[in-house]
Amino acid sequence: MHKARTNPINLFAMHGALILYTIIALFPVFVILINSFKTRKAIFREPLALPDADTFSLIGYQTVMKQGDFFLYFQNSLIVTVASLFFVLLFGAMAAFALAEYRFKGNLWMGLYLALGIMIPIRIGTVAILEMMVATGLVNTLWALILVYTAQGLPLAVFILSEFMRQVSDDLKNAGRIDGLSEYTIFFRLVLPLVRPAMATVAVFNMIPIWNDLWFPLILAPAEETKTLTLGSQVFIGQFVTDWNAVLSALSMAILPVLILYVIFSRQLIRGITSGAVK
Amino acid sequence: MPRIRWHIVVFLAPAVLVYTAVMIFPLFNTLRLALYSEVDQARVFVGLQNFRTLFGDPIWSEAFWNALGNNFWFFLIHMLVQNPIGIALAAILSHPRLRFAALYRSAIFIPTILSFVIVGFAWKLILSPIWGIAPSMLDAVGLKSLFAPWLGKEEYALTTLALISVWQFVGIPMMLIYAALLSIPEEILEAGEIDGITGMAAFWKIKLPLILPSIGIISILTFVGNFNAFDLIYAAQGALAGPDFSTDILGTFMYRTFFGFQLQLGDPHMGSAIAGAMFAIILVGVCIYLFGIQTRLRRYQL
């Protein structure tokens, strides 16, 4: 395609535009990261300079370590995200299999019912969700968050996974049935391994919004021992507004885990988005 | 009497139960709570009284229309800035002779993975007159006179926050449009080339009509996302959405009403009423998209 000559000036302009936008996208992150390693004086004197032997300082990180329980927050975020993803994938795949595999009365309606939640944000029901969590004693537990994120992730998961399950060959499943496998075994042993790529797509789609959410941790689990990393850094920064070293270090510590996860999963994420999963 | 195939029930039950109990039921319960009020510490049915207060009482209605208007402005900036930039980036990235496309793509997507808290504070620091990164950078290109404490000025704060949000989320339209552009078969472009349609003309005349459905999806995703936005404003400006409520949108308004702030006590019933209004707005938007736009967009069989 396009054997037709591409004007080198055009190519140059395209790289120029992309480099400019990449700089715009990365500049704030870069500024925060480099300044978190500098002394207070250097932060203000030369904000754009890299830290050197004179200006290098870990004072901000020391404050963060002493004052905030970032390890606990990180652990909470990790538990909530992993558990929610596990339930979204397990329950989502099971429901998707039922909808894709069996003809039964109400199949279409069930599919539509589960798809409703794709467009309607769960936040609208916050008042009643909080009331329910208070009534069941789940408020200020990680379970409250896990339940909410599971419910939030299910509609899209069922939708995407059932599309993929329809493509699994019937011959394979019927062969399994002739061999006397139960429907459960067919699902867990034969079908699930085949839709693993789709499961990965669903997982990366859900991971970022869950990890970054501020609304539900703020409302359902604001207690010190259940704070997620997002809420914890928000509260910490609010208290230390004037301590620039601490604020910059706290921001960097919130950025780094996500950045590392992104480097690991970016291939999967980008392939997931571009595979046309959201069509 | 047909026998019940229990495995279907077992497969469906967990998802349906969690989804119904934690999402659908609270949604309707919230709409129901909007019809109640608290009188002498007891919950009393008051019909549409809360909505009458919300739209009729000058104090409430002013706050509501302010938040709604701000929300529309917030959405408009996303449509006018975020989506065109996203489409332009995707168009450049999908050029077949471009090298390092994967690298650019991954880098430009980085802001999207960061939390609102990080984004809000990072920009607050960068735009802060105390730190002076923004003024000194403008100074370097001779535009220092343009600098103002944007987040602190009523007339600029909302636009500034909308642009920050655009900066954060440009990766999403970029990725979706990029995927749509890649799925256009080469034969179509080659056929156009034979007819002499190349370069920019090929984009406007061939590719753009083919990706219109994706642009429609991005618009509705932007709409729903913007009308339940909250986090960025809360992280950058606090629950009061200052200065003087100039950055208040429906999400922050609902949060303040529900939880209370400063001297005002939280009121779950008025909060539910605002949630009901948000629900109606999102529903209208989704319906306009589903019945007005999506059915009229021509889908080309590729």
From TrEMBL, chain A:
Topology in membrane: Multi-pass membrane protein
UniProt keyword Transcription present: no
Family per similarity comment: Belongs to the binding-protein-dependent transport system permease family.
Coiled coil: none
Top-level taxon of origin: Bacteria
Taxonomic classification: Bacteria, Pseudomonadati, Pseudomonadota, Alphaproteobacteria, Rhodobacterales
Name of the gene this protein is made from: araQ_1
Protein name per the record: L-arabinose transport system permease protein AraQ
Annotated ABC transmembrane type-1 domain residues: 74-265
From TrEMBL, chain B:
InterPro entries in the cross-refs: ABC_transporter_permease, MetI-like, MetI-like_sf
UniProt keyword Nucleus, yes or no: no
Subcellular location field: Cell membrane
Segments traversing the membrane: 7-28, 72-94, 106-126, 156-181, 210-230, 273-292
Top-level taxon: Bacteria
Gene3D superfamilies per record: MetI-like
Domain ABC transmembrane type-1 positions: 68-291
GO CC annotations, alphabetized: plasma membrane
CDD domains, A to Z: TM_PBP2
One of the GO BP terms on file: transmembrane transport
Membrane topology field: Multi-pass membrane protein
Alphabetic keyword roster: Cell membrane, Membrane, Transmembrane, Transmembrane helix, Transport
Family membership: Belongs to the binding-protein-dependent transport system permease family.
Alphabetical list of PANTHER family matching this protein: ABC TRANSPORTER PERMEASE PROTEIN, INNER MEMBRANE ABC TRANSPORTER PERMEASE PROTEIN YCJO
Protein's name in the database: Lactose transport system permease protein LacF
Organism: Pseudoruegeria aquimaris
